[in-house]
Amino acid sequence: MATSESKLWYLENVNLLKDMSKDVKHEVHEKTVMRTVNKGQFIYFPEEQSTNIYFLKKGRVMIGTYSDDGRELIKAYLQPGEMFGEMSLTGEGKRSDFAKAADNDTLICAMPLHEMQHLAQKDSSLNIRLTKFLGLRMKKLERGYESLLFKDSRTRIIDFLKEMAEESGEKVGLETRIKLNLTHSDIAKLTATSRQTVTTVLNDLKKSNLINFDRKKILIRDLRELA
Fold this sequence. Notes:
Elements: H1 4-12, H2 22-31, E1 33-37, E2 42-44, E3 52-58, E4 61-66, E5 72-78, E6 83-84, E7 98-101, E8 106-112, H3 113-122, H4 124-150, H5 153-168, E9 170-172, E10 175-179, H6 184-191, H7 195-207, E11 211-213, E12 217-220
Antiparallel strand pairs: 1-8, 2-7, 3-6, 3-8, 4-5, 4-7, 9-10, 10-12, 11-12
Helix pairs in contact: 1-2, 3-4, 5-6, 6-7
């Protein structure tokens, strides 16, 4: 069972709450419950009532849905510090996606939707940040749908690398280093391709000296040249 002190420490590292006032952080701390989930365990299911907002403290969480023929479609692998279940803030009555742990000992905090809404009404800076977050998340989803409809497998994989570089890459001169905690199978799920296709595309890019990679990182030589 996590202590109150450890929960507050984790909340300090939530992207949404960084640079927010101590009062906001402490109120979120008071209204959230932290629990551990293990790999493969669902946090919520499609069609479940949208009653909570979640913060990821440790481990990874998969967000996905199911195709008409029952196949699992992964939309995102979330990293520590990210918020999820946020579509409930847009008026979503029931979940359209599922969320489940991708790692053992994944730590999440759940906050009742009405508590987050109440806090956002009281604090304008939090309200603005939530609005911006929701807008960016919606744009990302739209780009994902457009990519699936109009782009081939190679382009989707390259776009995925560019998106990772923009979101979490570390610039070293013209090069961009991306810490990698995804397997080729994970990338395949996120780009609606196959593991073999991901491996082939990455190896082709490496042979062309556009990237270099190992199990822990991908180094993009020059984002402007990646194509």
